[in-house]
Amino acid sequence: MSAELARLRVDYAGQDLDERTVHPDPFQQFRTWLDQALASNLKEPNAMALATATREGVPSCRMVLLKGFDPRGFVFFTNYSSSKGLELEQNPRAALTFYWAELERQVRVTGPVERVSARESDDYFAVRPPLARLGAAASPQSQVIPGRAWLKQRVESLQALHSDGDIPRPDDWGGYRVCPASFEFWQGRRNRLHDRILYTGEATAWSIVRLSP
Ligand SMILES: Cc1cc2nc3c(=O)[nH]c(=O)nc-3n(C[C@H](O)[C@H](O)[C@H](O)COP(=O)(O)O)c2cc1C
């Protein structure tokens, strides 16, 4: 135990969250919190931890960026051949966690995962800045590579190949959608008596309960 870490303690004193007044639709509740996070000048309010697991249940977790949110679910983009991509092909379920420290809020989402349509991936790839498109196309994400110079060389070769700046979306790059089966909204409160509101269910039939902090 580190004494320095043990001493760290924050008492949350901001807002509250009540199962009687939350929105009956968790998508609307998330929209409200996301809008507040977006309006609060946070760094990367759309960053979320994404947990996946192999077929055998070995977990892994990393940050990704939320790029789409609607009644179908939460969309992020990545390389389909990456470690997460391979795990999602084997075991198409995931958990997401948002943490907005300044708002003393956490949101957890779980659910099955599907690929977005090729059209949706094309549309998002097309609006990425040219250098981000090049970077995505050049990087065999999660593979061992000989060094940074090798990657730079791949970018330069691709740049030369597509001198018109029109970099096509690689087949193994695109979006995934996490389709929520549960949402948990966590609001920090005084003396560790935090509010936790859990929604489970689907579409029009969500059940709402309070969990002990
Ligand atoms: C704030 C932040 C946002 C990130 N966003 C993405 C993203 O949207 N897509 C992505 O593929 N990787 C993103 N990354 C990199 C991933 O965390 C990870 O390193 C990469 O996707 C490889 O993960 P994997 O080997 O588990 O597949 C982000 C990293 C950080 C720190």
From TrEMBL:
**EC id:** 1.4.3.5
Q: Look up the domain of life of the source.
A: Bacteria
From the broadest rank down, the organism's phylogenetic lineage runs: Bacteria, Pseudomonadati, Acidobacteriota, Terriglobia, Bryobacterales
Q: What class of enzyme is it?
A: oxidoreductase
Q: Name one GO molecular function term.
A: FMN binding
- Where does the Pyridoxine 5'-phosphate oxidase dimerisation C-terminal domain lie? 173-213
State the family named in the UniProt similarity comment for this chain: Belongs to the pyridoxamine 5'-phosphate oxidase family.
Q: Which residues form the Pyridoxamine 5'-phosphate oxidase N-terminal domain?
A: 34-160
Cofactor dependence is on:
FMN
Coiled-coil annotation reads: none
Indicate the quaternary assembly.
Homodimer.
Question: What keywords tag this UniProt record?
Answer: Flavoprotein, FMN, Oxidoreductase, Pyridoxine biosynthesis
Question: What protein does this entry describe?
Answer: Pyridoxamine 5'-phosphate oxidase
**Gene Ontology biological process terms from the UniProt entry:** pyridoxine biosynthetic process
* Organism of this sequence: Paludibaculum fermentans
The answer to whether the entry has keyword Calcium is no
Q: How is the cofactor bound?
A: Binds 1 FMN per subunit.
Pathway listed: Cofactor metabolism; pyridoxal 5'-phosphate salvage; pyridoxal 5'-phosphate from pyridoxine 5'-phosphate: step 1/1; Cofactor metabolism; pyridoxal 5'-phosphate salvage; pyridoxal 5'-phosphate from pyridoxamine 5'-phosphate: step 1/1
NCBIfam families tied to this protein? pdxH, PRK05679.1
List positions binding FMN: 62-67, 77-78, 84, 106, 141-142, 186, 196
Q: Which SUPFAM superfamilies match?
A: FMN-binding split barrel
